[in-house]
Amino acid sequence: MNTKIIIAALSVLIPIAVSCDPEGVARFPGQNQNPLPDYDDNRSDNLPPVVDVDQHTGEPIYDASLVNGSMLRRIESKSELTARLSSSQTTNYNREYDTAAMAGAAPPTAQSAAPAGGGSNTSGTTSSTTTIQEEGVDESDLVKNDTRYIYVADGHKLRVIDSYPATAMREAATMEFAGYIRGIYLQKAAARLVVVSEVYANYYDIYSSSNTAMPMLAGAPAPEYMNTSASVAITTVNVASPDFPAETETRFFEGSYVSSRLIEDKLTLVVNSWNYGYYYDALPGRGFEAMGATSVAYYPDYGSPSLDVDDFIPETWMGGSNDRDPLYEATDIHVQTEPYASLELTSVVSIDVNDLESGYKAIGVNDTFGVTYVSLEALYVTKQDYVYRPSHTEYRTLIHRIDFTVDGPVYTGSGVVEGSTWDSYSFSEYEGHLRVATHVDAWNSPNGVSYNLVTVLKNKDAKLTRVGVIDNIAPGEDLYSVRFAGKYGFVITFQRIDPLFTLDLSDPENPIIRGELEVPGYSEFMIPISANHIISVGRGVQLQNGFPRPYGVQINLFDISDLDSPQLLRQVDLTDIPTPNDNQWSTSPALYDPKAFQWYPEQSLLAVPVEVYNYSNDYSYSMSAERNVHVYAVNQTAGDFEFVRKFGFTPDSSVTNYYYDPFVRTVFIDRTAYAVTENLLRGIDLDSGSQASPTDLSLNSGN
Q1: Is the CB of residue 666 less than 8 Å from the CB of residue 609?
Q2: pLDDT confidence of residue 362
Q3: Of 55, 59, 10, which Cα lies nearest the Cα of 35?
Q4: Which residues are CB-neighbours of 409 under 8 A, at least 6 positions away?
Q5: What are phi and psi of 324, to 5 degrees?
Q6: What is the distance between the alpha carbons of residues 593 and 611, in angstroms, rounded to a whole number?
Q7: Which of 213, 221, 336, 424 could be joined to 286 by an S-S link, Cβ 3.0–4.6 Å?
Q8: Per residue in 192-234, pLDDT tens?
Q9: Which residues neighbour 236 within 8 Å (Cβ) at sequence distance 6 or greater?
Q10: What SS3 state is found at 291?
Q11: E-only strand ranges, 23-121
Q12: Residue 188 — very low, low, confident or very high, per pLDDT cuts 50/70/90?
């Protein structure tokens, strides 16, 4: 099986031969040449004006809501917002009955252990960091480290491991948090952790008669409407003395966690408020404690009275306090210009982690979103939508840009691109242009063949306007991996032939494909390690009965010094599964989680966790045959991978659940590597090969 790698430059348009049908509409090769059907005349009076033209077919795009209607504007008054929400049959709430955790969760408490025997005061000189997408834009993770300590998020706990040297590794301290930790940031210069946790509110917990935290008097009627949203807690922790971490401040923001990024001392937080009200049955709900009922039935109320806007706007409060403030005013909420109302609200918050008390500003958008991307200048939130065409219905990605300013987050423009994005790596902002890689499925394509695009957008007059595009990339192929690096881009697709494309984006208005390469297998994640080389992780693939089947996990080293002729320098299979095998299967978290792929440039080391499983004959059970971190040195001069060590944990033969104890992360401190799983942490000296006994972390234990 061959993988094709194509490196493309966005400086000239791709030369594509086109023809014209009898009516003069330009067609792409292989496209249906039949004239396109017109819209039904009976519908013409109801059609919005033409707002765009399909670049494949020349068809008009009639659905204005995706172009003009997708633009956002501020709500002008509380009464306008009330009217919009009432049109969505919004329900009412009663904040008096929020959970105790929502009303002011207990702050984290530190439980520090005294230094144990064998503890060391030494530290390494260099250490690995979290794999991130954009330089200068830090991303939260479950594991952070410096040159001595490893900080691990474990459900409601933060664990501090004194890890260097590995032979003296010990757990130095733990901290308890009110919510489930979604990620942590480590600011080494400030000796500070920023912990992002989420406090959940559960319908059954809130409305069960066994819930003693709810202020319900015996015989009193149960309220008809209740707020059941979660909250996100931002906590700063002083780790100047890591054995004794101390909470500095905690601030709560009402809503469910979506994403966050940290640029210097400014944290960008995105939360969703799921404002679904529920009507509670009066039989036996009212006075259920006195009546002996164990729970209260509920169902959505679609005919409730209009909402009080004050109940719709999310609140914020400091930890340990019941004094709540609205996160923003009604006029800070943005809505689509087309009539569209939603019960959901996305809040974008800019937080100065030096001052959680007053250093925050926020805006709201009356909608919910999927993939988010953050550059040094702006946050982009996205949503899948679709447009109707005469010949087909095509899915598109709606994009809103929110700038980072001294006055807080500011909405600056919207736009759309064809197709669907994969993750945040599908986006990149460079020199004022946003590049977006998307995939169009066959059933949403005008000629029934899938294809891929890279679209270049520029923010003009509050619209993200398309200024350049590389179209029709790898027809019939799926989009597997994308990575942008400055003015270049790299796209990997896969179906039966597996292409890697390289893109040159130096001229945003004229993008082109520069190079193409076919290699065995495919890659799912790439990292440019220099101006001349890319490393990637993926799978080997072979055809069986005409269908591609993946087998072992593999790493690749590419030479991209000549964009017109990229080369595969080295490919290594990390498992002893040379062909697809029904009784064995291998995987790696790095295939779907970039943070599991660890590149350590100071030592030119690469670490990839790999898990191999043996299946029983009846496929009912499986056990791990291998659970190791594979460490390789990358020799860019020789164009080769050099094996260093493979280390990990001895599988427990009693374990039959193949999801047991997966890898989380790999950490490097000088020439020592650490494997962190959900339950264990083990260190190894890469030169001597001596392994330290695992430290039992009991991670995700639910305690």
Answers
A1: yes
A2: 98
A3: 59
A4: 268, 348, 349, 350, 361, 362, 363, 379, 402, 403
A5: -105, 145
A6: 14
A7: 221
A8: 999 999 987 644 333 334 433 333 333 333 433 334 468 999 9
A9: 192, 193, 194, 195, 247, 248, 249, 250, 353, 356
A10: helix
A11: 26-27, 52-53, 60-61, 72-74, 109-112
A12: very high
Q: Which of 250, 200, 204 is nearest to 100 (CA)?
A: 200
What are the beta bridge partners of residue 631?
607, 645
Do the Cβ atoms of 160 and 174 come closer than 8 Å? Answer: yes
Tally the residues of the chain.
703
Closest by CA to 506, choosing from 456, 437, 449, 453, is: 456
In this structure, how many other beta carbons lie within 10 angstroms of the beta carbon of residue 241?
Answer: 12
- Which residues have a Cβ under 8 Å from the Cβ of 512 and sit 6 or more positions away? 8, 9, 10, 11, 12, 13, 14, 470, 503, 504
Confidence of residue 109 (pLDDT cuts 50, 70, 90): low
Helices H, strands E: what count in the chain? 5, 49
Two tokens, residue 215: 């202020």
Q: Is the pLDDT of residue 532 over 90?
A: yes
Percent of the chain with pLDDT over 90: 47
Q: How many CB atoms lie within 10 A of CB 499?
A: 24
Contacts of 583 (CB under 8 A, 6+ apart): 614, 615
**What are the tokens at 114?**
């005294």
Per DSSP, 78 falls in state: H
Backbone angles phi, psi at 240, to 5 degrees: -60, -35
Which of these, 310, 300, 305, lies nearest to 333 by C-alpha position? 310
Q: DSSP assignment, residue 697?
A: -
Structure tokens at 19: 């023809």
Q: Distance between CA 178 and CA 158 in Å, rounded?
A: 11
Q: What is the pLDDT of residues 310-363, one digit of tens each?
A: 778 999 999 988 889 999 999 999 988 765 556 789 999 999 999 999 999 999
- Write down the H helix ranges in 45-98: 78-86
Single-letter code of the amino acid located at 544: Q
Task: Please answer whether residues 654 and 620 qualify as being in contact, where contact means their C-beta atoms are separated by less than 8 angstroms.
Answer: no
The Cα–Cα gap between 614 and 586 comes to 9
User: 369 or 297, which is more confident?
Assistant: 369
Distance (Å, whole) CA 534 – CA 599: 11
pLDDT higher than 50, residue 653: no
Residue 107 has pLDDT above 70, yes or no: no
**What is the separation of C-alpha 387 from the centre of its chain, rounded to a whole number of angstroms?**
26
Looking at the predicted structure, is the pLDDT value of residue 115 above 50?
A: no
Taking phi over 0 as left and psi of -120 to 50 as alpha, with beta for the rest, 539 belongs to beta
Mean of pLDDT values over 534-544: 87
**Cross-strand bridge partners of residue 2:** 520
The secondary structure of 1-24, three-state, reads CEEEEEEECCCCCCCCCCEECCCC
Q: Nearest 5°: phi and psi at 678?
A: -70, -15
Residue with tokens 């891929």: 452
- Report residue 322 as tokens: 């019941």
Going 260 to 261 to 262 to 266, the CA torsion angle's sign is negative
Q: How far apart are CA 625 and CA 185, in angstroms?
A: 34
Question: Alpha helices, DSSP H only, in 282-436?
Answer: 288-291, 309-312
Contact between residue 164 and residue 153 where contact means Cβ atoms under 8 Å apart: no
Output the pLDDT for position 106.
Answer: 53
The two three-digit tokens of residue 253, written as one number = 């923001």
pLDDT of residue 604: 98
Residues ≥6 apart with Cβ < 8 Å to 135: none
User: Per the omega criterion (within 30 degrees of 0), is the bond before 339 cis?
Assistant: no
How many other β-carbons are positioned within 10 Å of the β-carbon of residue 135?
Answer: 7
Cβ pair 140, 185 in contact under 8 A: yes
Torsion of CA 119, 121, 122, 128, to 10 degrees: 80
